[in-house]
Amino acid sequence: GTPVAVLAGIGAAARRGVVIKGGEALEALGAVDVLFLDKTGTLTSGRPEITDVVLIEGGGRTSERKRASDAGRPDDAAEAGGTAPASEAKAIEDILSLAASAERYSEHPLAQAVVEAARRRGLSPAEPETFEALPGRGVRARVQGRLVAVGSPKWIMEEVAAHSVDLPPELEHLLGAGKTPLAVAVDGRLRAVLAAQDRLRPEVLEALSELQAFGIEEIVMLTGDHVAAARALADRLWAAGLKIEVRAGLLPADKQRTVKAYQDRGRRVAFVGDGVNDAPALAQADVGIAMGEAGTAIAAESAHVVLLRDDFRLIAEAFRLVRRTVRVIK
Ligand code: ADP
Ligand code: MG
């Protein structure tokens, strides 16, 4: 049978919002020495906003940059830069509408940002005729007879938009600011790059230093996002004196392979994630930890530990409780 101390530990954790699925998971948590963290929705709030829309039209480009403080004002499209002619504002709306239609049925935080950006402008995106999500890449949908794809620039450039096109110079600036670039293709042509801005969860710095103090030797960020966005976030953690390694541009299978490679070297691995893209790594890890309310059901199902509140501090709480319980058993 399960030792009483383990049952008591699981009960105490549950009362604090940490569901540990059994004694094995609890004991595995006690042995963890490497912690892998997903970025979007785990280290960040998972509520990104679209801050920029850069149109790419027949080689020429127009761009609109919104100041964060204006976000939400219906007239900001016309105001931004003060130079965008009405036809360009219309083109931006058309692209946002198509992108929002394509994203409508995705549960990804970036999808919600796109849908929200369209809603804020009072647009009413059409119902998509078909929809397909490709975890770690983006979405594909048929909207009013057109094939719309929204996703990572790498995926769009390599697999969707077969024509060669220069990425807009504005992209450098957006990447430098740590924003996540999203490419939008319509009928196989790159039409726009959107930039999404997310926020580091405020509780992360303290929780990570506590985890390091618990003897977790290595903390590694694993993300499907662009390396520049990943580094900009890591900069904040490094500046606070935390040791964290960054691996970016990973597909769901790459995250899983990374976890497995560490296990093959005898490491005990915990992986924290929230999305469908994290499911393979969550299942592979010695302890998969699914994050918060915003997390997907698939993540929760693949995980060994589920955090019931959308609060990064619960990760440290889980380790704290488990170490206490394991001490009692030994
Ligand atoms: P993370 O590992 O940071 O949680 P994901 O693996 O979910 O990120 O996504 C990796 C990249 O794939 C994103 O940065 C984005 O470029 C693209 N992507 C994934 N899903 C979507 C989506 N629904 N809409 C747009 N882009 C997406
Ligand atoms: Mg995520």
What can be said about this structure in brief?
By secondary structure, the chain is of the alpha/beta class. It has helices spanning 4-15, 23-31, 39-43, 76-79, 86-103, 109-120, 153-160, 170-176, 204-213, 227-239, 252-264, 279-284, 297-302, 313-329, and strands at 18-20, 34-38, 49-57, 60-65, 130-134, 138-143, 146-151, 180-186, 189-197, 218-222, 245-247, 269-273, 287-290, 305-307. Strands 1-14-13-12-2-10-11 form a 7-stranded mixed β-sheet, sandwiched between helices. A 7-stranded antiparallel β-sheet has the order 4-3-9-8-7-6-5, sandwiched between helices.
Distance between termini?
A: 16 Å
What is the name of the CATH architecture of the largest domain?
3-Layer(aba) Sandwich
Major sheet: order of its strands?
1-14-13-12-2-10-11
SSE string, helices as H and strands as E: HEHEHEEHHHEEEHHEEHEHEHEHEHEH
Mean pLDDT over the residues: 89
List descriptors:
Cd(2+)-exporting ATPase; Rossmann fold; Calcium-transporting ATPase, cytoplasmic domain N; seven-stranded mixed β-sheet; 2 domains; binds adenosine-5'-diphosphate; elongated; 14 strands; binds magnesium ion; 23% strand
